[in-house]
Design brief:
By secondary structure, this protein is an alpha/beta fold. It folds into two domains: 4-170, Aminopeptidase (3-Layer(aba) Sandwich), CATH 3.40.630; 216-651 and 678-702, Rossmann fold, CATH 3.40.50.1820. The protein is built from 21 helices and 21 strands. It has a ten-stranded mixed beta sheet, sandwiched between helices. Strand 3 (97-103), helix 4 (111-126) and strand 4 form a beta-alpha-beta unit. Helix 4 runs parallel beside helix 5, helix 10 crosses helix 12 and helix 13 packs parallel to helix 17 (562-588). It is globular, with a radius of gyration of 27 Å. Residues 1-49, 60-74, 80-85, 104-112, 173-199 and 289-294 have low confidence and may be disordered.
Length: 702
């Protein structure tokens, strides 16, 4: 059989335009002639294909399901538009590496077909024997080409050829090397016994050794590492306990189980009764000698706390993959913590045995694990930033106040912090409702007798009852039953009040919120539909919102529907104004603070929003994961070149703040004219601060 380089190679052009167009059936016959070439068929085998058969395979490729029968050496897909050749997506294979390339047309349409064709071809190639890696060469300033490379699962490396960056995707490991220590503290041991689809990088932590995998060229990931013992059995409703040590090497190439919840989120695992080892974390880190080359000393660390109304979510969501931030020079840690009743439910008479805020105590335990172990991954335990969004953001600013977390981090990133927190009385009332729904006494013994599944189901039942009852007051509009409890012990006070009362010494704060927070909650159906003036009046009464505030919003939104006025008020009440007040309080107490707003929208040809700058939309961009297909609902479809640039800017800002305390714009001074960074739009208004002055942000979270 001839070697690949003995065959005529397809012409590979690279430009700054990547505008491939939809497949055209009329030109399948020409492609059949290409595949009928005797020299090519000597190599790929099989008989010449008919135009009809080739057209069928084109369609399958565009859908992301290429046909293995076509062959995998020098495989070409031609794309045409209006009887003109528009481009090709192709792959050549040599020495076990398949290079994907593309030739581009002049039209502006069809970028989605290009990414789908590249994704489909890459996935098909990844299943073929003898191919160990994929690669492509992309100009560093060609964002559209980068988007197609990402669609194929490739990640940039530091290698350059003729001014272009080599992107790679490892499919299978090289031959196992001898055991050894690479890069000092990081024990990177390619293990021949590892799964055939990944390399095994072994790192020693306090409890034993853990084997990870290659997340991308130059980036190692260790997933599902226990930082505390399973919080069930004798440990249920208690403060987190240290994990047990283990012998040998623990496989950490998959996420750990998620905490008890009923949610099933796109691209993330669901909880199953019996899953108990839920207090785990994940670490992405540049591998020593590769991406970390040229960096003096250990790398700064970002610890991520997911959101989800303290009721759902996990560190395994595709939004939170740490690969892109690790490429930016960070060690990234994402954390599971107890949520729902297990993490935030009030246990009557609990005291030290069953403390409040067990979820926050889990987060503090994870930070202690980071303090002890992160150097083994190349991280700096003295440069740790805690970051979170929504419930995770309020968790982060709560940790600033907790004795258990004091001294474990020096910076906080809080996106869309939500408030206020619960009082002990409100938490106790919620427990009585949930115990009744579960059919158990509202006592420690009764609640311990209920299984985690029972309490998840009871919580869902109570929330749905409140949602259906307009007479339930402020709890009706978006019932959230759990959250931090200002108990005076674990959490001294609501973060807003506590930050205003005294400075948190030595901790910098970066605050962000989106400009249309609550439109997401409306889109997913968790928020009440307020569409009439009487309903809006009841909402304002239930939350104690004064008439001038509501009239001010009407003046700012003269053509808005009642629903839109409600969503704007509710979003600012819960997220934007609370976030701004946290920033104000930190500045007022002498803390260094940065403020930003996320305003990126996507509109149709008439200017109507397809997706708004809503809750959670900023996070895929900040993590560099906005191309993940599971996140298209959040970002409004396949990202554009402008979206790629926005993500680059957000990743750079986070990395700069975590590393040096400088996100790239001036600090906020607490005034209406203070510096605010706007993401995704030339300008964007925040909540009308003058209208909110003096307005309490209570009652407590419903």
């Amino acid at each position: 059989m001839p070697r690949p380089h003995q065959l005529p190679q397809p012409e590979v052009l690279r430009t700054d335009r990547l505008d491939l167009v939809p497949l055209a059936a009329a030109h399948a016959a020409e492609m059949a002639e290409v595949l009928a070439d005797p020299a090519l068929h000597t190599f790929i085998g099989g008989e010449p294909l008919s135009a009809e058969a080739l057209h069928t395979r084109y369609v399958r490729l565009a859908a992301g399901s290429p046909d293995p029968a076509v062959g995998w050496f020098n495989w070409v897909v031609r794309l045409r538009d209006e009887n003109r050749l528009a481009g090709t997506v192709q792959a050549t294979v040599e020495a076990g590496v398949a290079e994907i390339a593309w030739v581009v047309g002049t039209g502006l349409q069809g970028r989605g077909i290009a990414t789908e064709a590249a994704r489909g071809l890459a996935e098909w190639l990844s299943r073929q024997p003898g191919i160990g890696a994929l690669c492509a060469h992309v100009h560093p300033e060609h964002l559209a080409s980068q988007a197609v490379a990402r669609a194929a699962g490739l990640e940039p490396t530091e290698k350059r050829e003729d001014g272009e960056v080599r992107w790679e995707r490892l499919l299978r490991p090289a031959d196992a090397a001898a055991d050894g220590v690479v890069g000092g503290a990081v024990d990177c041991v390619p293990d021949g016994a590892a799964d055939a689809a990944s390399e095994g990088f072994v790192v020693r932590v306090e409890q034993g050794r853990v084997r990870g995998l290659t997340a991308a060229p130059g980036i190692a990931a260790h997933l599902g590492i226990p930082y505390a013992a399973p919080p069930f059995g004798p440990h249920r409703f208690r403060a987190p306990q240290p994990p047990a040590p283990w012998d040998g090497v623990r496989d950490c190439t998959a996420f750990g189980p998620v905490c008890p919840q009923s949610a099933e989120l796109p691209g993330a695992p669901a909880w199953a009764p019996g899953d108990e080892d839920v207090l785990t974390l994940n670490v992405w880190a540049p591998r020593a000698g590769e991406w970390a080359a040229g960096v003096d000393g250990p790398l700064p660390v970002l610890v991520w706390i997911h959101g989800g109304a303290y009721t759902f979510g996990s560190s395994a969501q595709p939004d939170f993959d740490g690969t892109a931030l690790a490429r930016a020079g960070l060690v990234v840690v994402t954390v599971n913590y107890r949520i729902g009743f297990e993490g935030f439910g009030h246990v009557p008479g609990g005291g030290d045995a069953h403390p409040e805020n067990r979820g926050l105590l889990d987060q503090a335990a994870a930070l202690r694990w980071v303090r002890t172990n992160i150097a083994a991954f190349g991280g700096d335990p003295d440069r740790v930033t805690v970051a979170g969004q929504s419930a995770g953001a309020t968790s982060a600013v709560s940790l600033m106040l907790m004795d258990e977390a004091r001294g474990l981090f020096r910076r906080v990133v809080a996106h869309s912090a939500v408030g206020p927190c619960f009082s002990r009385d409100t938490a106790a009332e919620n427990t009585r409702w949930i115990a009744a729904a579960a059919g158990v006494p509202a006592t420690a013994e009764g609640l311990l007798a209920a299984s985690p599944r029972d309490l998840v189901a009871a919580s869902d039942q109570v929330a749905e009852t409140l949602r259906r009852d307009p007479g339930s007051g402020s709890r009706h509009y978006d019932p959230v039953l759990y959250g931090p409890v200002a108990d005076g012990t674990v959490l001294p006070a609501d973060p807003l009040a506590a930050h205003a009362a005294a400075p948190v010494e030595g901790v910098d704060l970066l605050v962000c919120h989106t400009t249309e927070e609550y439109w997401l909650l409306d889109a997913v159906g968790s928020s009440a539909k307020i569409t009439t003036e009487p309903q809006l009046s009841s909402f304002c009464d239930d939350f104690g919102l004064p008439g001038p505030l509501v009239e001010g919003y009407r003046e700012r939104m003269p053509d808005a529907s009642v629903l839109d006025v409600y969503l704007a008020l509710f979003g600012d009440l819960r997220f934007a104004e609370y976030s701004n007040r946290v920033a104000d309080a930190h500045v007022g107490a002498g803390g260094r603070t940065f403020l930003s707003r996320f305003a990126r929208r996507r509109t149709d040809s008439t200017g109507r929003p397809v997706v708004r700058a809503w809750h959670c939309a900023d996070i895929p961009f900040a993590f560099g994961n906005h191309h993940d297909p599971h996140l298209e609902f959040l970002v409004g479809g396949p990202p554009t070149a402008a979206d790629d640039e926005l993500s680059v800017q957000l990743v750079r800002a986070w990395a700069g703040f975590v590393a040096h305390g400088d996100p790239g714009w001036p600090s906020y001074d607490g005034t209406d004219a203070g510096a605010v960074r706007i993401w995704g739009a030339p300008t964007a208004d925040g909540p009308p601060r003058e209208l909110w002055r003096g307005v309490p942000l209570g009652p407590e979270m419903p």
